[in-house]
Amino acid sequence: MSMVKPGSRARAIAARMGQTLPVLAGVVVISFLLTRALPGDPAAYFAGAAADEASIEEIRIALGLDKPLLQQFFLYVGDLFAGDLGNSLSTGQPVAQDLARRLPASLELTLIALLISCCTAIPLGILAARNPGSVIDHLCRVLVTAGVSLPTFFTGILLIYIFYYLLGLAPSPLGRLDFIYLAPDHVTGFYLIDAAIMQDWYTWWGAVKQLILPATTLALFTLAPIARMTRAAMLTALSSDFIRTARAAGLTPRKVLYGYAFRNALLPVITTLGMVFSFTLGANVLVEKVFAWPGIGSYAVEALVVSDYAAVQGFVLAMAVLFVVLNFVIDLVYTAIDPRIAFEQS
Amino acid sequence: MLTIDDLAVSFQTRRGKVNAVRQLSLTLAKGETLGIVGESGSGKSVTSYALMRILDAGGQITQGKLIYSGMDLRHVSENDMRNIRGREISMIFQNPRAALNPIRKVGHQIEDVLRQHLQASRQNAKQKAIEALQAVKIQNAEERYHAYPFELSGGMCQRVIIAIAIACNPQILIADEPTTGLDITTQKVVMELIRDLIIERSMSAILITHDLGLASQYCDRILVMKDGEVVEEGRPQTLFTQPQHPYTQKLVMATPHAETDIRGLLPPEQRSRQPVHTVSDKPLLEIVHLSKTYAGKSGPVHAVKDVSWCIREGQSVGLVGESGCGKSTTAEMLVRLLDPSEGKILYRGDDIAAVPARHFAEHPHRRQIQMVFQDATDSLNPRHTARDALAEPLRQLAGLRGRTLQERMEKLAAMVGLPVNLLDRFPHQLSGGQKARVGIARAIALEPDLLILDEPTAALDVSIQAVVLNLLVDLRAALGMSYLFVSHDLQVIKLLCDYVVVMKDGAVVEAGPTRSLMANPQHAYTRTLLAAAPVLDYA
Amino acid sequence: MMHQLAENTTAQGRRSTSNSLSHLWYVLRTNPITLLAFVLFALIILSAVFGPALVPYDPLQTNAAIALQAPSSEHWFGTDSVGRDVFSRVIVATRLDLAISIAAVALSFVIGSTLGGIAGYWGGWLDSVLNRLMDTIMAFPLFVLAMGIVAALGNTIENIIYATAIINIPFYARLVRAEVNIRREAGFVRAAKLAGNSDIRVLVMHIFPNALPPMMVQVSLNLGWAILNAAGLSFIGLGVRPPTPEWGIMVAEGANFIVSGEWWLAVFPGLWLMIAVFTFNLLGDGLRDLVDPRKRT
């Protein structure tokens, strides 16, 4: 019998970080395999259509493709540590640089969308769980099933048709800012933050207007799993024995609902967020294409069209690393809420 | 203090309205402890939930008055009711670990109640919570204040629940099966704590339990409930010495106690002559220095430590101990589902421990050693009918097919008293007693030499337990089997076994012939076990 | 969302066949939404099987003279930029979209449940290795991984199927692993061993059938997701190529005309896609009701 000591939580976090490493290693192995699985001869491909035998051979040696696979892997890992993801054929720039420049646009969109969907879905789930079988419960169910059935690219197009073409409320769906605005000075790359720093509220509002439709599109898609999980977790929590104890002790419904049930229900909801991130980052690609959003998703789609493989693989790897980091953050939040995690580790 | 008059509670289910409680009336005097006893589904818990107005969704009080200090609790506002719960009337629940919020410190959970009922301010809440923990005799209360429920033992969790219940000095304490899931020694400690607190704070109390022994020891007056109605009421002595209602009579008879033999558990008209079973001197199963060690997170865990004893042909051996003593692990090794770390298991001289568990299915001795599992529901495949369950060992191990198989199965069903038309039912369509019969029929299908019974009646109501125990006695004589009967209940073991082995912390502390061991226990732990079991006192 | 199923459905599966027909009727009668799902499902299957034979126009026939016509009695869903009949194309596409998702889900079902069953039953190092592998797959945003796989393996329909199958395997493996794991020590499993069943027999004959109901729920939900995934891939230009009628491509082609008001090009295929996914999701929910009404979420 030992109490949870202050140090054990830190140890739990350290252990979790340790678990992240093999996953990262696996990610690197898979992305290496993906780069080497290119159809045909990569060297011939990188040399270009007009290249002759000799220049293909030259490229092959330059790329290290003549070496054994294992050695190639270590070269690949070395390049990764040096931040080298190869050069993009279409932009002529290093892929890492391209991605870094476009990443803030994607992150801004994704995070705003998640904020919208969490702020809608969690209260919706709680409401539905408080009154199972009620009108709001059925509404929640239909909304949730419809939300997860909507292809994001289709929702986006539909929203554009309604709010841009029919109603004229939304600006033209072309990127982060209409051409009448000037982009704010680069500080974080997040337009909303950068414009706020410059106190340029005119531009800030312009950026918000561009953001609303794509963010809503993404949020609609992620609403469903969060609301569904919140409802289920709340129902489980509310039917637990400890809720009966709390009620029998005369605690107010408010305290029972939020102090006791919700905090317990939050744990599975947080776990679900990992899956939701995965869906969001994937759907992000489609939404960026629909709204011509200059993030890394549309960068990858453009690269795909011209068979710019280095750019696509760099994108896949970057997304995976981003996702691993996000999952790690989720675990930290979980550890902070659930005392049992720290206990299991010690 | 409290008067319940003509209470009726019903539940809305898919199949329509079900009356859980009907025409229930009771009174509770100041300082009195009232027991409500009954088997599962008798409506005894529902009564207390109705009183607290915390019925589950779909439950409704349809009739009656609940008078507490001049108020009808049925009609007071929800706000007023909330002030009564926890402050005037408190409740203790079964399954203490689940009854506490798993992610909130226990000290804070006590503070919540104190603050809710304005018994403590922000400044002194912690002090008062610690006092509440001390009141339930928790050592190092300052330290325990910061503990989470998962860090505490089951008994300790129940003390915290009690601390929450009495923190605001209520007038009435309701204890709903407060010791279910606790070990027998812990049960005694918890019950004595509750009794002391009731006296010390001059509370009235309602004790809800299925255990007649427990009720007779701690209650001033007892109500017996069946199918939502009170069938009899009285003081424990009169109620148990001269039960009037046939149901009470049946219940009292079926409860194992010091004076009875196994047939005595049954109603008189069902008591046939008890068959004799003969014990020979020839050893059937010798357990030699058997150990099981698991790799734990903090070093090896010794589940079973060097145990040895012998089961003779025809002998019934009882294996007793509390949870975690290693008795189930030992049973699993003997039935060859688990490989021991060390030691031998000699079946008629053959070391069957030498054959790995995963290959034992093909071993010729497989059919000679069989087992009846603790939870009959869990031991039946939900997708197989009773017939499928019986056919398994007959097909796999005896190669029976077609007509012979069917005939054999019907004969087996008859032996365990299972109507043949129930054979085509799935487990969820059978009652608890019927499932137990299927489990037993499957185990004896190949007429094994040794049957290991792992708490076969633990999940059954006492009247069904009586029937199943008697069935086991008949089968033992009919088939000449030896039993290893694993149980925590010495009274049951005494009825069935010739020899008893007592285990604690993985080791055997005492072993000997049942009669002498129970009359004259040598080891202190055996004495504690015997003293802790609540016994129906006839005298 | 999906991996949570493993936890949500662990207590399920105590159903009998004799009982389930009447239960099915009960669920359908009291839950018109599930009934609707069954009807829609039948329609989708019918149009996948007979659609190509029944549609009024050749889905590939171009006719510049009637390009970009709004929906009319002649062309129910209008015509596209080269004068093809949108209705015919939408119906014919059902077969391809459905085939891709069914093939992918079948592949991941078989591979995933085999791996999950082995890992869940025997545990040990096999389990650790499998867990690491699944963690690694799940470490990618799944749609992005599918993009990477198709980009690497080559832009064909088969590769779309493989990619969709690979990203779905972890769901099945984890679900089956969890279902098998909680039953590994169950009384009926130990009883089956005492009755002389070998480990393989115990796993296949006793444990796996009990894990099937939650698996069927997963399959249904997964089919919808696989359709979305395949359509999404072709929307960004992977897999199916024009002029093959496929919902994702049709939406992508129609997207260019939406800002000038020709909505029918994108809306009808998108709507059909949505209905198909919606049907499978409703069906999944309905099956969940059927398997265990208390677990509806």
Q: How is this structure best described in words?
A:
The complex is a heterotrimer of chains A (346), B (539) and C (297). Chain A contains 14 helices and no strands. With 346 residues, chain A is mostly helical. Chain A has 2 domains: 127 residues, no CATH class; 208 residues, MetI-like (MetI-like fold), CATH 1.10.3720. The longest helix of chain A has 38 residues. The termini of chain A are close together. With 539 residues, chain B is an alpha/beta fold. The radius of gyration of chain B is 25 Å and the shape is globular. The N and C termini of chain C lie close together (11 Å). Chain C has a single domain, classed as MetI-like (MetI-like fold), CATH 1.10.3720.10. Chain C is built from 11 helices and no strands. With 297 residues, chain C is mainly α. In chain C, 73% of the residues lie in helices and 0% in strands. Chains in contact: A-B, A-C, B-C. At the A-C interface, helix 1, helix 6, helix 7, helix 9 and helix 11 of A face helix 5, helix 6, helix 9, helix 10 and helix 11 of C.
Q: Domains counted in the coordinates of chain A: how many?
A: 2
Give a short account of the largest sheet of chain C.
Answer: none
Detail the poorly predicted runs of chain A: none
What is the H/E order of chain C?
HHHHHHHHHHH
Shape of chain C: elongated
Mean pLDDT of chain A: 83
What topology does this entry show?
The complex is a heterotrimer of chains A (346), B (539) and C (297).
Chain A: H1 6-36, H2 42-47, H3 53-63, H4 69-81, H5 95-130, H6 135-149, H7 152-166, H8 191-197, H9 201-238, H10 241-248, H11 253-290, H12 296-305, H13 309-337, H14 339-345
Helix pairs in contact in A: 1-13, 1-14, 5-6, 5-9, 5-11, 6-9, 7-9, 7-11, 8-9, 9-11, 10-11, 11-12, 11-13, 12-13, 13-14
Chain B: E1 2-13, E2 16-28, E3 33-37, H1 44-52, E4 59-68, E5 71-72, H2 78-84, E6 89-92, H3 106-116, H4 125-135, H5 141-144, H6 154-166, E7 172-176, H7 184-200, E8 204-209, H8 212-218, E9 221-226, E10 229-234, H9 236-241, H10 246-254, E11 283-296, E12 299-312, E13 316-320, H11 327-334, E14 342-347, E15 350-351, E16 369-372, H12 376-379, H13 386-398, H14 402-415, H15 432-444, E17 450-454, H16 462-479, E18 482-487, H17 490-496, E19 499-504, E20 507-513, H18 514-519, H19 524-532
Parallel strand pairs in B: 3-8, 3-9, 6-7, 7-8, 13-18, 13-19, 16-17, 17-18
Antiparallel strand pairs in B: 1-2, 1-4, 4-5, 9-10, 11-12, 11-14, 14-15, 19-20
Chain C: H1 5-8, H2 17-30, H3 32-54, H4 86-122, H5 124-138, H6 142-153, H7 157-184, H8 187-194, H9 199-235, H10 247-258, H11 264-291
Helix pairs in contact in C: 2-3, 3-4, 3-11, 4-5, 4-7, 4-9, 4-11, 5-7, 6-7, 7-9, 8-9, 9-10, 9-11, 10-11
